[in-house]
Amino acid sequence: MANCVFCKIVAGEIPSKKIYEDESVLAFYDIEPQAPVHFLVIPKDHIENAGCVTSQNSKLIAHIFEIISKLADELKLKSFRVVTNSGTDAGQTVFHLHFHMLAGGVLGAMA
Ligand code: AMP
User: Fold this and answer.
1) How close is the Cα of 57 to the center of ligand 1, in Å?
2) CA dist list (Å): 56 to 59, 60, 95
3) Which positions are annotated as active-site residues?
4) pTM value?
5) How far is the CA of 72 from the centre of ligand 1 (A)?
6) What are the φ/ψ torsions at residue 93 (nearest 5 degrees)?
7) Ligand 1 geometric centre to CA of 15 (Å)
8) Spatial CB neighbours of 47, under 8 Å, sequence gap ≥ 6
9) What are the residues whose beta carbons fall under 8 Å from the beta carbon of 25, sequence distance 6 or more?
């Protein structure tokens, strides 16, 4: 999607520190980490947010959670938090569905 920063990362037009990629999913480190380990897992296809998940694309969401589990295992993250902000009032600033993966220390009570 034009003017979507994460679509540009998927297309290689903006650099990112990738940690995982397959045909439908990309994971890369957050540019402004909020925890010792903070990366984002996104679908390559543009989906605006969690409010746009339907029976047509929900398999992709299940796949994303498989990747989250695999990366947690590979990076030896025993405790982690997965967050997705959906909508401006929830704090969403990039309107391309993404799951924040936060770990690497004792996290506060809320994301
Ligand atoms: P949210 O506020 O939930 O929409 O999260 C958007 C996240 O994207 C923030 O944590 C930003 O730091 C992160 N972000 C924005 N631009 C980039 C970028 N070019 N590379 C990596 N992370 C980014």
Assistant:
1) 22
2) 8, 9, 19
3) 98
4) 0.97
5) 20
6) -115, -25
7) 13
8) 53, 57, 60, 96, 97
9) 41, 42, 43, 44, 60, 63, 64, 67
Q: Which residues are paired to 33 by β-bridges? A: none
Q: pLDDT tens digits for the chain (111 residues)?
A: 889 999 999 999 999 999 999 999 999 999 999 999 999 999 999 999 999 999 999 999 999 999 999 999 999 999 999 999 999 999 999 999 999 999 998 998 875
Tell me which residues have their CB closer than 6 angstroms to ligand 1. Answer: 5, 14, 16, 30-32, 85, 91-94
Pinpoint the alpha helices (H) of the chain.
Answer: 5-10, 58-74
What lies within 8 Å, CB to CB, of 105 at 6+ separation is 35, 36
Alpha carbons 75 and 58: distance in angstroms, whole number: 26
Is the Cβ–Cβ distance between 98 and 6 less than 8 Å? Answer: yes
Question: For ligand 1, atom 17, which residue shows the shortest CA distance?
Answer: 31
Gap between the Cα atoms of 53 and 103, Å rounded? 25
